Amino acid sequence: MDSSIKEKLRLLREAQGLSQKSIAKRLNLTQQAYSAIENNPENAKLDRLRELCKILGISMRTLFLCNFKCTDGANQNEIVVTDKLPVIVFLSDTEKLAFEKQISNLQNELQQLKSKT
Hints:
Layout: H1 5-15, H2 20-26, H3 31-39, H4 46-56, H5 60-65, E1 68-70, E2 78-81, E3 88-89, H6 93-116
Antiparallel strand pairs: 1-2, 2-3
Helix pairs in contact: 2-3
């Protein structure tokens, strides 16, 4: 069963222990304005959804193209992507930087390999 965008937004927000009010504050919106976005994301501007995705730690691609659900278990901050993608875990800033560095190194290595062919 496909996850609707509004279900994804709610799952991600709740998995991170965030309230609508706290996200609204980060977006410089009222809680009611944010609630309207979460309940009717198709009416939201793309820039606003992009900002929201940054807060929730996902890409727009993941929001629109992937299905996922919260796992049942001790770690409430875990979301399983069900479209053959790995588990997304909300990482600390240090962990994110480490992964970004690793990805950058792999991209550089790939470019070097491509240039040799």
